[in-house]
Amino acid sequence: MIDFQIDQLYAWISGLLWPLFRIAGLVALAPILGESSVPARVKIGLSVVLTIVVSPLIGPVPAIAPASYAGLLIAAQQVLIGMTLGLCMRLIFTATMMAGEFVGLPMGLAFASFFDPATGANTAVLSRLINLVAMLMFLAVNGHLLMIDGLMRTFDLFPIGAPLHPEGWSALLDWSAQIWISGMLLALPIIIVLLTINLSLGILNRTAQQLSVFAVGFPISLTTGLIMLAIVIPQSSDFLTRLFEDGYQAMARIARSLAGL
Description:
Elements: H1 6-29, H2 40-54, H3 69-107, E1 113-116, E2 121-124, H4 125-140, H5 143-157, H6 167-176, H7 178-207, H8 213-235, H9 237-258
Antiparallel strand pairs: 1-2
């Protein structure tokens, strides 16, 4: 006769439930995986499959009833960890969209926007274009697999139920500065050229006032910007690859800070 106890049931449920919360938190906010265009069933199924794969490798977990106050606290903690790491990588793609905003303004395309279901707001066309290029590059270098691997390594840094240290949130805030820095660096070559064009048009307006700069300035800026985009975007692969590597290092740094290491 098989002897079955309630503590064994709690251990089996906890062995799958606590890792599932951490993985699901990452999938909810991670780039590519967490896009609104991805069905919720796909996200849940991916989280469950990853949990089944990783659960035998994470070691013992606290045998706590999931419906207890301690169990709810652990669940919230695991979701917060996963969402923090997913947000870390999401900031990279926010930086690429910021680069599109920087470029669109001097090109005269700041008004060219449409509703983006991924962000839930109006997004500039150039921001969406650069973001799509970054997503394709992210998939090409297997960034989604490296991101998941970084999450799995966090189970060794701080096991389930271990206390979180506040230094991790400071590390996340420090990394968030890359939204402006990386966005500006990505858009800087185009901005320099467009500012030079605008400065030249301003000088031309002072020297030849009979020439309508407003009539010729917009086509010149738009054409120059499109030419520069055709030149810069194919050359941005090295910059994006380094940015992704910085994101992986930021994930590891945030994880170590949360573990107090």
